Amino acid sequence: MVSYRIDIMVLIWIGLAIGVLFIIILIAKLLRTPPHEAVSFNTYCKKCGIKTNGLKCPKCDSSYPSRKYR
Asked: Which of 9, 36, 48, 61 has the CB geometry, 3.0–4.6 Å to 56, for a possible disulfide?
């Protein structure tokens, strides 16, 4: 019975340690981020430069059907 309680306490301490470590990492990331930086993603193709709105590029991706069928 006593061993069972010790095992639970060890798991609780390990969980607390992991949680505190996670919070410290998040605070460090928050402090290193510039104040005016926004979350953004590239809306243009890296190869040809046409606007894709975050989708695959129809010019560069070979899985798109040929334009002669349109």
From this structure: 61
